[in-house]
Amino acid sequence: MKEKNSQSVLYPYYCTIKVEGDIIVPNTTIDYVNISWAIGELFENSTGRLSFNHTVNMSFVNENFYEMFTIYYTDTTYRRDKKTYELDNFWPHIFFADNQTMNFTMVFEKPYMLGLLQKKTDYLRMNITEGFNYSGLWDDYLPEKERLVY
Fold first, then answer.
1. What is the Rg, in whole angstroms, of the alpha carbon atoms belonging to the chain?
2. Hey, CA dihedral for 74, 77, 80, 86, is it positive or negative?
3. What average pLDDT score do residues 106-113 get?
4. How far apart are CA 69 and CA 88, in angstroms?
5. pTM check: above 0.70
6. What values do phi and psi take at 59, rounded to 5?
7. Residue 58, class by beta-carbon neighbours within 10 Å (0-12 exposed, 13-18 middle, 19+ buried)?
8. Buried/exposed 25-53: b ≥16 CB within 10 Å, e otherwise
9. Among residues 76, 73, 54, which one has the least CA distance to residue 126?
């Protein structure tokens, strides 16, 4: 417990949290693969590259891209005002044969925003859409034992 307007702890209170249920261990209890992605370097012609850490169904990604992801950028004032900005346009257009990499093009409302993203003062963010069924992401591209079961 901390006193209001104080930098030190007034009284420490310890607690124990007990979680009931079966223990789930990935690849032991359920078949599991962790699929993540990263946005690589952004180029001066407003293009970039998105890479997945595992082979995915790029046809599914292409058909469902806008339902799968929410894309926006934040500037240096985000910590203070929590304001996000939408891109005028964002489209994936080159899907590589490795089924892990794709290129995209962005259009900003204010063209100078790309320069700020390249200087690392602002951030391009790509979040998953909660509630979307991602199972098509790995269908036919992962062996049966590696498919994630929810």
1. 21
2. negative
3. 74
4. 15
5. no
6. -65, -40
7. buried
8. eeeeeeebbeeebebeebeeebebbbebe
9. 73
